């Protein structure tokens, strides 16, 4: 069973591992820097107090953190937000990603400020793109040479999902 819940102090080591995992951070199109546990606490505090965001830890059946999922930059005039997810590399392929996305789509509908989620994903991230398609996102464009990864430029696919539409 997968749950999405607010972060707690006990999650800091697992989330620090994720924040310091370079392949995961590059998959998130980030510019990673080393994160101490205090950096992670500050990041969690920022995310949790951001009125334009919804942030949750993704937890397994024991309640332990396996990743995080977020909507940031909620534009309450145009009614969209920017979606992102990361699951610990050792815990992938167990259904946590898909379950967390489904739960977050429900949470986004309940939130009341959102009609649509948008996201950006590297064009060569086939696993993530397949998962997003399977959860009702569709590709709406490609930014060419948009993310400079350690081994070179990536095209970045733009996807969106209207919350009212069935997958
Ligand atoms: C994308 C990501 C969140 C998926 O999380 P996950 O917990 O592995 O997802 P699931 O276990 O629900 O698997 C989703 C699908 O991907 C497939 N999958 C997972 N890992 C796979 C792999 N290594 N190779 C092929 N398929 C894989 C699963 O079979 C599943 O397909 P199905 O639903 O048809 O059976 C995870 O890979 C991740 O954190 N990647 C790094 C960060 C990232 O890329 N984030 C998104 C970029 S914006």
What would you say this structure looks like, in words?
The chain is α+β, with helices and mostly antiparallel strands and 167 residues long. It has a domain at 3-117: Gcn5-related N-acetyltransferase (GNAT) (Aminopeptidase, 3-Layer(aba) Sandwich), CATH 3.40.630.30. 31% of the residues lie in helices and 35% in strands. The chain has a seven-stranded mixed sheet, sandwiched between helices. The chain is globular, with a radius of gyration of 15 Å. The mean pLDDT is 96. Bound molecules: coenzyme A. Coenzyme A (COA) binds next to helix 2, strand 4, helix 4, strand 5 and helix 5.
Short description:
The protein has 167 residues and is of the alpha+beta class. Helix content is 31%, strand content 35%. The chain has a domain at 3-117: Gcn5-related N-acetyltransferase (GNAT) (Aminopeptidase, 3-Layer(aba) Sandwich).
Task: List its salient traits.
167 residues; alpha+beta; 5 helices; 31% helix; binds coenzyme A
**How much of the sequence is in beta strands?**
25-35%
Q: How would you sum up the major sheet?
A: 7 strands, mixed
Weakly predicted, low-confidence segments:
none
Q: List the helices and strands in order.
A: EHHHEEEHEHEE
Radius of gyration: 15 Å
The CATH architecture term of the domain at 3-117 is 3-Layer(aba) Sandwich
From the N-terminal CA to the C-terminal CA, the straight-line distance is 21 Å
